[in-house]
Structure prediction request, 377 residues.
Amino acid sequence: MNPRDAHYMSQAVRIARRGLGQVWPNPAVGAIAVDPSGEIVGRGWTAPGGRPHAEAIALDQAGHRAEGSTLYVTLEPCAHEGGRGAPCSGVIVAAKVKRVVIGIRDPDPRTAGRGIERLTNAGIEVTEGVLAGEAASVTLGHLMRVTEGRPAVTLKLAMGSDGRIPQGDGKPVWTTGPQARSHGHLLRAMNDAILVGRGTIAADDPSLTCRLPGMSCRSPVRVVMDRHLRTRPTARLFEDQMIPVWLLCAAGEPQPNADPLHDSGAEIVPVPIDELGMIDPRHALETLAHRGITRVLIEGGPSVAETFVDADLVDEAVIYQGPNPVGEAGLTPFGGEGLDRFAGNGHFKRIAARNIGPDRMTRWRRIRSCSLALSAA
Prediction:
């Protein structure tokens, strides 16, 4: 791999992350325009709401210096007509870019190689697969939505040193320090939606917003799996009316509490149930994907965590462990298996581990999700 290409693509991947949680249903993309002397003349990442696209922003910033430049972009430039604005492959051709370096191809059938074909037909040199793994990682939500019909799922759990989760009594109970909790809020900001079960609302009465300074506007859509709509209309969840609340309930069943909850600001979303009469987790994710969600952060308790892990629907897990034990009154995740569920079953591999203040954070990725990302690269 050309070291120069890897250098600029790494910057494109880094700025692509700035759009995470803000651009759905579009993917978060980064683009860097570099003139022949090696000077960066334009940078762009997908704007909030999905438009303008990263390539258009970078080339607009470059202006006349885009002519003859090399454009580094994490995802194949789009080729489909009919959106808000011209397709990015056409914008690149019009800007007279000399070369385009791409991280991964776009599996979206509206593009899927057609963007590259348009560039090469215009005489633009195209190089593919530069830092493909990194580009696929930042684009995983889009890849999952296109290829599997569901968002990418990250599971977050906070527990004591003994692997147990404290039981709430109507308000939050902390097992980790403020630095780890701030990191958890950053995860919220980088996802389109946050999902919990009704039990978490009853036990902790959380607001589920991003409370980092200056980042409240990046709070995700709040999703509650509530089969019988028993969430209290007075829950803290409804205090901030600017951030949507979607309540997933059982389709085809009477829901007498729907009107009061709707009046409190909730959107009621029926979802098919499984053979046990529970909300089907895959159908829940497919429903969210249909609504444009590409990345979901699950912060529910042990029951919700176990449901999605058992269904093989978790792509990443972020585990925070405090320095002190919770004790016998705490709950063990995953039906008593605890963290061995990730360490010992061969479906996940640990991809990161570090200390955050006094706490320990480990990150796990589903091996199948890694393979999917690499196959798209």
Q: What stands out?
A: DSSP finds 13 helices and 14 strands in the chain. The chain has a mean pLDDT of 90. The first helix runs from residue 3 to 16.
